[in-house]
Specification:
The chain is mostly helical and 400 residues long. The protein has 15 helices and no strands. 82% of the residues lie in helices and 0% in strands.
Length: 400
């Protein structure tokens, strides 16, 4: 059996895995257009309301560590059922939240449960595919997955304008309940390795093993800081587009569709080319293209030509590059130790969303009535991604 490209066993369908991967991004993006409205509803400042997004991302980072590790000990299916069950209860708590503090806490629980779909879909793919084939499968899963978060800002904006922000959380509660039933009926256990002892010190030791592998660190950092360009945009764009430019939440959501389509296009190209070119060239190209799109945005900002079209148009280049980079970077990171793919997927995703969460809050704190803090931060994280991508090239040569 060829571990690199061979199929180990038949996986769940791409649509099922994509639906699971959608849960957390859907929950993140449907709230983004409502952040200014939540700020007004609870009579709090924008940075505090932004915590409903930032805390969600950070909790996703922590949740992946727990869910991924538990899946190595108890199996993918039980971990999925527990995670999505937590998500359903937490989403209902968000819809009923009487204060901003309760909403923030409930969002953190919602993220911990919802992220089980992301981390375990990745682990399931690695259970049944080799590395390059995993990158291709992840590309297709992500491409299908993007449809829901692409529409989420539109739905969130429409609900905010017509009903109010609580309606979005009731919608998420229903979606979570439907996915719980889908997992119960359709998902079977996929791990082919012996389940590890549920010993806390042993499971934590897996993280230590992964952090000692330069290849894992390099690909994870390339992925995380490329993703931080998007998370920076998510943290600042509602302020820039709605508060500064005067767009409505619905208009913001509609413009966001273009960004999602660009990301989906990058996923498709990555899926088509990963088997032919391998993972490393796509990671390097994606990181460089990400910086290129950022420089286009910077030119519009610093020359006074920033409009809704130029803002979202330049961000399309950045997200297209992210779409190319993410599947091969994830596949490379979680393939370093296939026997602990759950822990690798969890730790990789944890670092990715941890960096993203810091990025969203950092840019929100620096809101100064212009788009310049957003642009400078995107430039910095894009440069770090390029450095990490070339570090991955160097360590990969040494391993070879």
């Amino acid at each position: 059996m060829d571990e690199k490209n061979g199929v180990v066993q038949a996986p769940p369908s791409i649509l099922v895995l994509a639906a699971l991967s959608t849960l957390a991004p859907l929950s993140l993006n449907i709230v983004v257009p409502s952040v200014p409205g939540i700020s007004r509803y609870f009579s709090t400042d924008y940075a505090t309301a932004q915590l409903t997004v930032t805390v969600f991302i950070i909790a996703m980072a922590i949740g992946q560590l727990v869910i991924g590790t538990l899946s190595d000990a108890y199996g993918r299916r039980p971990a999925l059922l527990i995670g999505i069950g937590i998500y359903v209860v937490a989403s209902a708590m968000c819809a009923l939240a009487p204060t901003i503090e309760v909403l923030i806490v409930a969002r953190s629980l919602e993220a911990v449960g919802g992220v089980s779909g992301v981390v375990l879909a990745r682990a399931i793919i690695r259970d049944v595919y080799g590395r390059d084939r995993s990158a291709s499968a992840l590309g297709y899963v992500t491409m299908v997955m993007v449809v829901a978060p692409m529409l989420a800002p539109v739905v969130g904006g429409l609900l905010e304008d017509s009903v109010g922000w609580r309606a979005g959380f009731w919608l998420l509660t229903g979606v979570g309940a439907g996915l719980f039933l889908m997992v119960y009926v359709l998902i079977k256990e996929t791990t082919k390795y012996e389940l590890q002892q549920p010993n806390f010190s042993v499971l934590l030791g897996n993280f230590g093993k992964l952090l000692e592998i330069p290849t894992f660190l390099a690909f994870t950092c390339a992925l995380s800081f490329a993703s931080a360009t998007f998370f920076t945009f998510v943290g600042a764009a509602p302020y820039v587009a709605i508060e500064l430019m005067g767009n409505t939440p619905t208009e913001y959501g509609l413009a966001f569709i273009a960004i999602s389509l660009a990301f989906m296009s990058g996923n498709f190209i990555s899926a088509r080319l990963s088997m032919r070119l391998g993972t490393l060239p796509l990671v390097i190209f994606g990181s460089c293209a990400c910086l290129g799109g950022t420089m286009v945005m910077a030119a519009f900002v610093f020359f006074g030509e920033l409009t809704t079209v130029t803002l979202f148009g330049s961000m399309m280049i950045v997200t297209f590059a992210n779409g190319i980079l993410m599947p091969p970077a994830i596949a490379s990171a979680i393939s370093v130790r296939p026997e602990i793919a759950g822990a690798a997927s969890g730790l990789c995703g944890s670092i990715q969303f941890g960096v993203g969460g810091i990025a969203t809050y950092a840019v929100a704190l620096r809101a100064d009535g212009t788009a310049e803090p957003m642009v400078w931060q995107i430039i910095v994280v894009a440069l770090i991604s390029i450095i990490a991508a070339f570090a991955a090239k160097r360590v990969s040569r040494k391993v070879a």
